[in-house]
Amino acid sequence: MAIKYELIKTCKQSGARLGRLHTPHGIIETPIFMPVGTQATVKAMTPEELKEMEAQIILSNTYHLYLRPGHELVQKAGGLHSFMNWDRPILTDSGGFQVFSLGDLRKITEEGVTFQSHLDGSRHFLSPERVMEIENALGADIIMAFDECAPYPSEHDYVKRSLERTTRWAERCKNAHQNTDRQALFGIVQGGMYEDLRRQSAAELVALDFPGYAIGGLSVGEPKPMMYEVLDYTVPLLPADKPRYLMGVGSPDALIEGAIRGIDMFDCVLPTRTARNGTAMTSQGKVVIKHAKYTEDFSPLDPDCDCYTCRNYTKAYLRHLYKANEILSSRLMSYHNLHFLINLMKQVREAIMEDRLLDFKASFFERYYGEDL
Prior knowledge:
By secondary structure, this protein is α/β, with parallel strands linked by helices. It contains 15 helices and 16 strands. α10 runs antiparallel to α15, α11 packs antiparallel against α14 (327-353) and α14 (327-353) packs antiparallel against α15.
């Protein structure tokens, strides 16, 4: 197989697990946060900067790369690693979430999805076989099966039909997948907020024997306690000797709670999106840099952070850049937020190794989730 999961330790205090994921482009220490590079770039960051902050793996988007510049071009460039000058692991999602979020611009059938491009309105068709063709051409280490992501809330009958189609599509993806020796195909467990449907989806996908499993259809508008409840009964259904990936989740509380529940991999656009909107994550809570109180604040964003931004720039300067709409604002804030989440997961791994993750959670939550600074 293209990848291998190695369990290193289970935290006695929390049940969280520490592991290593061996891939064709290197070893990933888990649990891990994966920066999102939707269009073959993590917004505002160079590959060298991502390595500097110790990003181990990044995620790119099949839907967006299919529309622009096209998977054929990426393949001609030698694949995604070569095209974007990134020699560490890459994961590509299937584009399912993006296609289904188009609403009235798409039509679902058993064969696949017909949709209009959000770029120019042109019509396209994606089937499980077509998605595998695209992801094989992109060449990421880990690729995702084409799934249907049911919106929240949805009726039980609709979600049941949806997850059963996802299972059939997963089997078609597995049959169409070409590069099994160098690309690991993950199945995606669906089922909405219904325990019986999550159990059905997990059982059907585990029977197909994928090298890894993702949990999809969460962080789509449901309350966080509901998401944690779904994880509580879904994660134990997945094989202990394979990686578990919670899709689209990246807030600090959800990363820690997910790790406690046995999740190995996370991704989210949150750190770069909030950075562009002027919000930083710090060890003392969120800092909204546009606030006037930072006009003459010559301290770093986070006194406990050693990232490039915090070593070199003050809140006053970052506020000036944001108010002046300078590109450097997005770069420096994005650098900090990505570094913050990558470092948070490093601290989580250390806490698991030392059997103290629940103590770490309590201390972190007390500092971070007080009143916004």
